[in-house]
Specification:
With 337 residues, this protein is an alpha/beta fold. It has three domains: 85 residues, Orthogonal Bundle (Arc Repressor Mutant, subunit A); 39 residues, no CATH class; 186 residues, Rossmann fold (3-Layer(aba) Sandwich). The chain has 14 helices and nine strands. The strands form two sheets. It has a seven-stranded mixed sheet, sandwiched between helices. A two-stranded antiparallel ribbon has the order 1-2. The chain is globular and about 80 Å long.
Length: 337
């Protein structure tokens, strides 16, 4: 083999670019492959054990040239070290095997979100801007976001454990309840707690209701769908929560939003707000891009900025805690009255 072409590429300044692109391809292919395998049901299928090619061909309804396409698709999985081929057929390997476990569904959802929404955001935002347009809430999959947001679950559960009283009657208002998982943690923390969860997207609200029924909490916790900003103040709550959704509101509207939340909190109660903040990981940067480029939403806050907004909204004491060392996932406990 002649090395002359390599030296020519190096001399022309092209080899560095080619090597740089090549080093990033495997990660891109791997995430895309995992997302496709998950969405197609292949991860769940192979989680039960190896499967023969003929079985997979029937599962994919692949005939004729489709069998060759399936074989090539499976071969790529082997090259990416996500599949193996043995005497019993194709089996999951490495990261694919880990993501097929039910307890790792939040991480699987994040893979699907990166390969779908994040890819679309990065590739499509500039064309949107050139046409004078932005993304909308309809461009995201609310149920997928609810699943992937549980990647913060352990840290979110810990702050609930630290801040919620463990006994005594307690009334909770959760704004943007998602799957309802944090309503469950709050109810487990305090057996006397009752709660109202509000969710903007009806389909996600229905998922939360189904979950609460399965957890036997529907007598203590109710979920309603609709925009919190259209709700008339009336009942006062001991605690209001706003988890991972301050960026669903434009920056210039946040003080008014926080002030309005305060009108639902009794004197001496508090708002518990958690959010990713400016300066976090690449995933946080993608979230910042989504907020900044979506109609009716807004970029991620800076920590000091949000503290100042809470004080402007009438909260007299704000306690701030970074929940994820090395990243910027922050809890703000803001006391009212």
């Amino acid at each position: 083999m002649s090395l002359k072409p390599f030296f020519r590429l190096l001399r022309d300044g092209r080899l560095t670019a080619l090597l740089g692109v090549g080093s990033g391809l495997k990660s891109f292919y791997k995430l895309t492959y995992l997302a496709a395998a998950g969405e197609a049901g292949l991860l769940n299928l192979l989680a039960a054990g190896p499967a023969t090619f003929d079985f997979l061909a029937r599962f994919c309804a692949a005939g004729g040239q489709g069998r060759e396409a399936l074989e090539a698709w499976l071969q790529m999985g082997i090259r990416l070290q996500l599949l193996s081929l043995g005497p019993r057929g194709y089996a999951l390997r490495g990261l694919a095997r880990a993501l097929a476990r039910p307890e790792n569904d939040p991480a699987m959802a994040m893979v699907e979100e990166v390969a779908g929404l994040h890819h679309k955001l990065i590739s499509g935002t500039l064309p949107k801007l050139r046409s004078g347009d932005l993304w909308s809430l309809a461009d995201q999959d609310g149920e997928l976001i609810a699943r992937s947001s549980r990647i913060f679950e352990a840290f979110q559960a810990e702050v609930i454990q630290r801040t919620f009283p463990e006994r005594g009657a307690l009334r909770l208002l959760e704004i943007g309840c998602g799957s309802g998982i944090y309503l469950r943690y709050a109810a487990m923390r305090n057996p006397a707690l009752t709660a109202l969860g509000l969710e903007l997207q009806p389909a996600v609200a229905e998922v939360a209701r189904e979950n609460l029924r399965s957890w036997d909490l529907e007598d203590r916790v109710k979920v309603e769908d609709g925009d919190f900003r259209a709700r008339t103040p009336g009942e006062l709550f001991d605690i209001a929560t706003l988890y991972n959704n301050i960026y669903y509101f434009p920056v210039e509207e946040r003080v008014a939003l926080l002030e309005r939340i305060g009108s639902f909190v009794r004197p001496g109660g508090f708002l518990l707000l958690t959010t990713c903040c400016q300066g976090g990981s690449l995933g946080v940067e993608a979230l910042n891009l989504w907020g900044a480029a979506t109609k009716g939403a807004g970029r991620l806050p800076a920590e000091d900025e949000l503290v100042n907004q809470l004080r402007q909204a009438g909260y007299n004491r704000v306690k701030m805690t970074n929940l994820l060392p090395g990243d910027r996932f922050v809890a703000f406990q803001a006391f009212h009255g």
